Amino acid sequence: MERASTxxxxxxxxxxxxxxxxxxxxxxxxxxxxxxxALGFFLFKGGxxxxxxxxxxxxxxxxxxxxxPPAAVERIGDNYRMIIDKIGVDAPVATYGLDENRxxxxxxxxxxxxxxxxxxxxxxxxxxxxxxxAGHVTWNGQAVFYNLTSxxxxxxxxxxxxxxxxxxxxxxxxxxxxxxxxxxLQMLYPTNDDVLTIVTCGxxxxxxxxxxxxxDYTQRIVVRGELVS
Length: 229
Hints:
There is one protein chain. By secondary structure, the chain is mainly beta. It contains 3 helices and 10 strands, in the order H-E-H-E-E-E-E-E-E-E-H-E-E. The radius of gyration is 18 Å and the shape is globular.
């Protein structure tokens, strides 16, 4: 049986191949981190089980009315880009989710090198909580997050929609993490604060003789930003 640490961390593999379409993250290297985190989001949000939780009903009184939870703030539209001036990134963001086996998918089409993936099991940027993004470091050459390690605390990451609305995040950490470090996984879990998290591969590439993807990277680069505007 494959070790849990292995399947968790085998996502966003930075293969030098360019298969067309969208493939599951399992087997793609770096973002097995995201696959495991997806489970964490479901558990925190109450959606991680196929069995529905029993409903708890309360009887309203004449003096106390139920108060609905506050709606998420929608600060940007659905068509938006990620801009990181520090490293020359101005890339379209595409929404990615889970396949029928609840495994996150990753861009692998002809434009995969320049696409940033936002995962819809996380929150929309600027709406409160942890917005999780991922992208390739290499894909038939340099990819969108090739220079992500150069981003430092204080740098600004902008999310700008097609109507010019923008939410900005200030980088507060940029860490190269061991794929087996549980702290790496926790960076992708839900938060009470409005934050942005970006994951890509880092460290050294090594050959695993995988017939499709060839190898993996020794580290995961995880950038965290906090909402500033």
